[in-house]
Each structure stands twice: as structure tokens, then as C-alpha cells.
Write a structure and sequence with these properties.
This protein is 77% helix and 0% strand. The chain is an all-alpha fold. Helix 5 runs antiparallel to helix 6, helix 6 packs across helix 8 and helix 8 runs antiparallel to helix 9.
Length: 256
């Protein structure tokens, strides 16, 4: 971003020309607005670029599809077929292959913790990320559950309960989005963490007391899955009722 000569501040033509020189490559309304503010401040300050304008423009430029948050999401999507191949290699029961599959699953879970945080912290939220992130989450978890059930390590009813809840809540969010957004709760985050730990323990070829422990962790994950699912349904009903009431009140006020 370049500064504007001090003489430009003395005439309207200089002020109008500031955005073009400040952000010649801007491709969005937000970038243009940031350039206008930066250019005006630079003109008023005797040719010095405005620091706030630089930060705003940088944030806008970073919010592209090819940012670190979205790259982590893409990595998670690419890990899904790799995980399945490792999980089913050599019949699906070789401890070495299962350990490699666990490593792929662990990487996917870790990237899930970071991509959303990075996107919100550094203003990297994009439409692609909003769609791809939940798909990547459910793809790796679904692949793990289906592989475990197909190998006989996990009852099918557990897989059906968890995947049914995840898909149902996702659909519910879309149905009530016109009335508002259902925020992620602490219970939901705990459910995700517990599911990840439980599935990870089942992916590993554990024996003895660790095999018993993973059963209890999975039981806790199932309970949290059902409980948080019921809570989301309750929130959706409340949100819909509030939205309908607000629309009705606004309509009555308009007619009055």
C-alpha cells in the first residue's frame, strides 16, 4: 500500500484518487472500503500510510480460499481415503497398519482443533471453510466408525447412533438457520473430544485393561452424543418459536 502525497489532501481530486493508488488489486467491496479509509488517513497524515488501514487490508487479503485454516481442512479431507486404506490393509487386523491408521486419525483430529481457531482468530473465515470443515469432520469420523463396525470391532448400533445424530443435527441446523444459528455448546465440544478419544482407542489394537477402558470411553461418548443431540433439538425448537414470534410482531407493527 502506497502513501498519498501531502498535496493530494488539498483538493478533492487527490482524495478521490487515493483508493486507486492505495489498493490497485482490490477485488472486493471490503478491500475497497479498507483502501479508501487507508488512503484518506494517509492524505491527512502528510503521506504516511495508515497502520490501521494496512491491518484491515491485510486481513481482507488473507481471507482467501488458500489460507492456512482451509489448507488444514483440505488435509483432513485427503487423510480420509488414506486412513481407510491403512485401516483395512492386510485384512484390517495387523497392529502395525492399525497404528499407522491411528496416526492418520490423530492428525485429522488435531487439525480439526486448530483450523476453526485459526480462521476465527486471524479473520480467515470463508464460505469454502464453512462448508468443507463440517464435511471433513464427519467424513473422518464416519470412515473410522464404519471401518470399525465392518471389521467387527464396534457394534453397528453404535455407529448408527453416532452418525445418525451428527447428520440429523446438521440437517436441523440448516432447517432453522432462517431463525438464527445454534451455537456450539460445551457439551457438544466435550462430546467431540470424547468421540475422538474413544474411536482412536478402538482404531489401535489394544488388549487387556486398555481394551476394557476403551469400552467405557465409548459408552460415555454415546451418552454424550444422545444427550447433546436432544439439547440441540430443544434449542432448535426454542429458536424457531422465537423467530416466528419476532416475525409476527414485526408484521403486526408494519400493518399498524
Amino acid at each position: 500500500m502506497t502513501g498519498v502525497p501531502a498535496s493530494a489532501a488539498n483538493g478533492p481530486s487527490g482524495a478521490q484518487g487515493a483508493p486507486a493508488s492505495a489498493a490497485p488489486g482490490a477485488t472486493s467491496d471490503a478491500a475497497s472500503d479498507a483502501a479508501v479509509v487507508a488512503g484518506s488517513d494517509a492524505a491527512a497524515g502528510g503521506g504516511k500510510p495508515a497502520r490501521g488501514g494496512k491491518i484491515a487490508a491485510a486481513a481482507v487479503n488473507q481471507a482467501s480460499v488458500w489460507n492456512i485454516a482451509n489448507l488444514l481442512t483440505m488435509l483432513r479431507l485427503l487423510l480420509v481415503p488414506g486412513f481407510v486404506a491403512l485401516m483395512l490393509a492386510d485384512g484390517g487386523y495387523d497392529p502395525a497398519w492399525r497404528s499407522l491408521a491411528w496416526a492418520a486419525f490423530a492428525i485429522a483430529m488435531i487439525t480439526d482443533l486448530f483450523d476453526g481457531h485459526l480462521a476465527r482468530t486471524y479473520n480467515l473465515v470463508t464460505d469454502f471453510g464453512k462448508i468443507a470443515d463440517p464435511i471433513a469432520d464427519k467424513a473422518i469420523m464416519g470412515a473410522a466408525l464404519i471401518c470399525l463396525s465392518s471389521l467387527g470391532d464396534l457394534p453397528w448400533w453404535v455407529t448408527i447412533v453416532i452418525l445418525g445424530r451428527e447428520l440429523g443435527i446438521t440437517l436441523l441446523r440448516f432447517l432453522v438457520i432462517r431463525y438464527g444459528v445454534i451455537p456450539a455448546s460445551r457439551g457438544g465440544k466435550l462430546k467431540t473430544l470424547t468421540q475422538g478419544v474413544a474411536v482412536g482407542m478402538y482404531v489401535l489394537a489394544l488388549t487387556g485393561w486398555l481394551a476394557t477402558l476403551r469400552w467405557w470411553v465409548m459408552a460415555a461418548a454415546v451418552v454424550l452424543t444422545v444427550a447433546t443431540g436432544v439439547d440441540y433439538v430443544r434449542q432448535a425448537i426454542v429458536l424457531r418459536r422465537q423467530g416466528i414470534a419476532e416475525r409476527k410482531a414485526a408484521l403486526e407493527e408494519t400493518e399498524a
